[in-house]
Amino acid sequence: MKEFLLLAKRFISPYKKYLVLNILFNILSAFLTLFSFAIIIPILEMLFNISQQHYEFMAWGSADTSEVIINNFYYYTQEIIVNHGKSVALATLAALLVFMTMLKTGTAYLSAYYSIPMRTGIVRDIRNKIYDKVVSLPIGFFTNERKGDVMARISGDVTEVENSITSSINMLFKNPIIIIICLATMIYVSWQLTIFVLILLPLAGTLMGKVGKNLKRASLEGQTQWGVLLSNIEETLGGLRIVKAFNAENKVSGRFKKENEKFVRISNRMNRRYELAHPMSEFLGTLTIAIVLWFGGTLILDGNSSISAAKFIYYMVIFYSIINPAKDLSKAVYSIQRGMASMERIDKILKADNPIKDPANPKPIPTEKPSIRYNNVSFRYTQNWVLKDVSLEIPFGHTVALVGQSGSGKSTMADMLPRFYDVNEGSITLNGTDVRDLRVHDLRSLMGNVNQEAILFNDSFYNNITFGVENATREQVEEAARIANAYDFIMETEDGFDTNIGDRGCRLSGGQRQRISIARAILKNPPILILDEATSALDTESEHCVQEALDRLMKDRTTLVIAHRLSTIRNADLICVMHEGRIVERGTHDELIALGGQYKHLVDMQKF
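Structure (tokenized):
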């Protein structure tokens, strides 16, 4: 319960208006329930000729208010019987019962009506917070997380929290109100019987509490396994071409069925325990009613009871009306346990620490032409150093290329410039200002990226090229496409720039996807370019055209290029050869060839 109250404190505050209205109508519904049931007493007394008492009209305010209301109610009933007969009086009381029930159900609906925007609003806020957090977290966070599991937390876990919130609203603001008001009325009608009831109810509640003791743990296991399943599906869809190429359908199918079977076992155990709540609460409630019925009925039959038979039946009706809220209360406890388990998984994202933070007192972005300097930079992802004491200067307008074997640290060098990761030792500066002293948004606004893997979205050509660029004109987009050698194949599609390119650009070839990615960087027109194998997916002719465009684009810009195709960086101002996290050679193409070291070896291999 403490965990839920903390959850409520975090998310319910913006919906206080709906909460107040929900509580108000719940109170009205509870009181109207009691008044509608109270009409049963005169109906029973009339049917069985129990009461022969004569009533006189009492002036309003002449005595206790409840006494006056009860007396005058019986007086008017008596008058109807005298003037119109018992049948008409019975019909009148029945009509009054229907009217009171209509009011009761109407207020119950209004209480639910005002709880809905609160419930859906909280779920919306949680989803928004998760999505914002996912977008803001550094890339390093997701190297240890399955994408499918993150998706499960945004979808399945949030749905569990929604169900938990629905149950908890009833548990905190509906069922307790009904139970408290009904118990107060039961004490008013017969405090002796109520004491007996209050002895029985905690015993039943203790038994039901034991059933839900381990539900939270089982639910946590179930949601974790659901994340594993989604990850399995996501990986299969992403690698379907490889699955089919290697005839691995049976392998992935068997792996999925194994994980699915595990999920089914956990779900069976969890849902069986959850479904036990209703029948157990109904059985214990009926047992309690039977005991109270026997005890109270025995007192009335023996003439030892302080209430009449009609009032005893009214008492039992009120008591029975507590049973359903009590049953709902027990199911709500189980739902909250499941919701709290899901909230734990959601909080793993929401409370994740983001090491890439804006400084407390950020410095302005450099207004001068930016030059970059790596100062004795060392970095590691886990235990092993990926970069070791690397120093490098990239003056404004110069192009510096990084070459070397895979795993030598080239991409890591590029990733640290826009602060996808922060250095462990040393620093990276722009015009002498440490990049950690700048706002992350301001820093990245200076840079354009073209990656080895062209990252596109399931949208139109136009929206992919303008991604992250506001207020771009159609002419600017078309010009960027021409420079990237993409205009012709875009215009050959059915809707030109408005054509949808499919999931991750699946309707395009590898070279076409890369050229759209290059056009996006061209449109941004940044002072700093990061090209990570930007031409690796192009055919020879397209590579030549795009390389000419990139050469024009790189003019008067600071450019960091990562390349395996050494022909694309022949004209770079400086080429750095990396090996095991260090720069082992640096110079121009001709200088490195003359040196006869690792660079010349790489060139010779590519020539061969």
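The beta strands are 372-380, 385-394, 399-404, 425-430, 433-434, 447-450, 528-532, 558-562, 574-579, 582-587. DSSP finds 22 helices and ten strands in the chain.
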